[in-house]
Amino acid sequence: MTITDSFFTKWHKECAVLCVLLLPLAACKEQKPAPKPSAKANFVIANPQDVELLIDLTGRITPMRVSEVRPQVNGYLYKRLFEEGTDVTKDQQLYQVDPRPYQAALDNAQGKLNSDLATLRAQTLKLKRYGPLKNMDAVSRQDYDDTLAAQEATKATIESDRASVRQAQLDLEYTGINATISGRISRSIQTQGALMATNQANPVAIITQLDPMFVDIIQPTAEQLRLRSRLANGKLETLRGAAHVPVDLILEDNTRYPLQANLLFTEVVTNQETGSVIQRAIVRNPDKLLLSGMYVRTVMHEGMEKAFLIPQEAVMRGLDEKPYLYIINKDNVVERRDIETQRMQETFWVTTKGVNAGDKILVSNPTSYRPGQKVQPEEGRTPVGVVPQ
């Protein structure tokens, strides 16, 4: 064997070994990976419907009537005639001021009136006798005229006396301090034996009418203008048959007040500092659950509008805090859709922009999908626009 034959023999052996080693690699190169199956995606169908417009605002309970109990005469507080913190009725006597000085003043005024009445009777009889005598010149004309003038003066004095008697009677009645309205009375600020004065700064007690009560609701003027614009454009319908706008009250413990309030009117003056107006509603309070000054959350039933109810879990927000959701198009590909949310209603976002009827809205963990991703859609049980019962 020559050197050349030996070289080629060795070269052929090395090539054979190399081919054996490269065969698996070639086989791997020819094999293609199995296609990844499309992810299953649960969706609901967008279905526009009449949605009741509910406006969530803050409010404060205000009593319909508040009466500050004040003395109308001076004197010492003789007796308190009510239990603090209880309900009192109109004209019920609450306090008794020492009546003795005012009884004496009434007796004095009545005595002066009686004296002047007696004088008038004497003057009347005297004039009755002077009449015939005057015609016979048995009595001078001057005496007759003087007696007549005295009678007229006595009549005027009697009118003044009667006014004094009436004033003394009023002062005596004012020694009994009565309730001017029915309601719940506060603690007594003055105690027995205290000196009462008609010009004192503080009242002796306060009566608050607790049924019914006012609810003063604070509404931004921008929201009010938006509602009026939508109503004028026909996008919002008022509740048919409602005399007033109904208002639900949510108490501080997040429980719903059992009775519904009715909106009465809206103030025409805007608060320049807050840019809001006051709307006043009225509500019954038979159990005295609502107290003056209590803060509540109010839900106003403004009317009906065409809108979509988007499940809360379907709505996401970007870095700019703007809401968006994912739509599954006709090719079963995920698309991003920016929307405008108005408010929360139950567990749904109410929206009128960004969603079209018949859209397939992705609701099953939407953050795990990306726009452009192919999915296998599976319809959910609740169409968008229908609140589950």
Automatic annotation (TrEMBL):
Family annotation (PANTHER family): ACRA/E-RELATED COMPONENT OF DRUG EFFLUX TRANSPORTER, MULTIDRUG EFFLUX PUMP SUBUNIT ACRA-RELATED
Superkingdom, natural source: Bacteria
Family: Belongs to the membrane fusion protein (MFP) (TC 8.A.1) family.
Gene Ontology terms: biological process: response to antibiotic
Protein name in the entry: Multidrug efflux pump subunit AcrA (Membrane-fusion protein) (AcrA)
Domain Multidrug resistance protein MdtA-like beta-barrel span(s) in chain numbering: 212-303
Domain Multidrug resistance protein MdtA-like alpha-helical hairpin: 106-175
Organism (species): Commensalibacter communis
